[in-house]
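Sorry to interrupt, but I need a hand with the structure work. Could you write out one complete protein record for me, on any chain you like? Could you add the entry underneath, on a fresh line?
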Amino acid sequence: MKKLLIAKAGKTFPAVKGIWGDFEDFIITQMGLDEKDVYVISIYEKEPLPSLREISGMIITGSHNYVTRQEDWNVKFSEDVKEVAQRGIPILGISYGHQLIAQAFGGEVGYHPKGIEIGTVDIELTIDGINDPLLGVLPKQFLGQVTHEQTVLTLPKGAKVLAYNDFEPHQAFVIEDRIWGVQFHPEFNADIMHRYIDEQIEKLVQKNLDIDLLHDYVRETDYGTQLLERFVALL
């Protein structure tokens, strides 16, 4: 039986990991999968891909790293992503993974001109998003958990924007109808989001963001679960 591959691009904060596990655990929990049905590789530690004959789909996690640093491991994995895509295997990139996919296929990634987006935010589907087999499972307007200061500045040629908001014009995109990137975090729950705000207080205060207000806006939502379950269903 083929398995879902989770390509782990980094580690979460220790305080978060002690309660909720790491990025792959967030995903597995939200999807309701058994660990035996999943391969996990740490791409930032240069672990190689398993045999692609054994893979039904791939998710690239978020990370506290930056795509623009062009480290050896993310340059190498960008080539791996293109190989997986050439095999027709569906791919979903989350936050860092979203940006890595965009860069691998010719897009441009950099610091967001508006600064940091963090917390629970309103996101809206485009017409392409409404008709997309993955994003279309969500309502036209939905809540998403976000934490990022880099962004996809320019999409790869041929990519379609699926979701956006006032801060982030590229909340989701798709390439060739089977390679998706989402800037938001469908694997986060409200408690993880609160903890991500608390872990970054010093930086957020320096950016003149209101910590209490950010916490007040955090909401629990099952839209992330819906999205991740739909990805598994599509496989």
Q: What stands out?
A: The chain has a mean pLDDT of 96. The CA atoms of residues 40 and 171 lie 25 Å apart. The first strand starts at residue 3 and ends at 8. The chain has nine helices and eleven strands.
